[in-house]
Prior knowledge:
Strand content: 35-45%
Helix content: 25-40%
CATH architecture: Roll
Number of domains: 1
Order of helices and strands: EHEHEEEHHEH
CATH superfamily: ph1033 like domains
Radius of gyration: 14 Å
Number of strands: 6
Number of helices: 5
Amino acid sequence: MAYWLIKSEPDAYSFAQMQKDKKTGWTGVRNYQAANNLKAMQLSDVCFFYHSNEGKEIVGTVEVNRTYHPDPTDETGKFGMVEVKNPKAAKTPLTLAAIKDHATLKNMAFVKQSRLSVSPVSAAEAKTILKLCGLA
DNA sequence: GCCAACGTTGGC
DNA sequence: GCCAACGTTGGC
Length: 136
């Protein structure tokens, strides 16, 4: 079981929308590093859902429902997508400020590489986040 | 709205 | 294959 962090601007696709949809195709990734992370996802891996720009906090988790396959919205055919389901809202969203303040979390990949939209999360980081979010 | 970081593009 | 120019992302 691996953990990931996926980012979305709430204006583009929010967690509230995810909760309405129950599951969704994670399309639109156009960055090789992010796409490689999508490729590495296995069924039932857990992804933390982060709101960038507006909110700047982890608002919940989703679960991988379908592994990497071609993204029909990519006309070049270079990039793929996964499908995620089962949104679970954080009881307490975890803000970026809190993450940067936390000894374990401040070294997370997505903090260091702020532009990477899909990034790996270590087991220790995941455990900490789940606890802080009230999802443990 | 600004700006730093950084990925991508295209000329050579 | 290098590198400058450019575009985009995202925090502040």
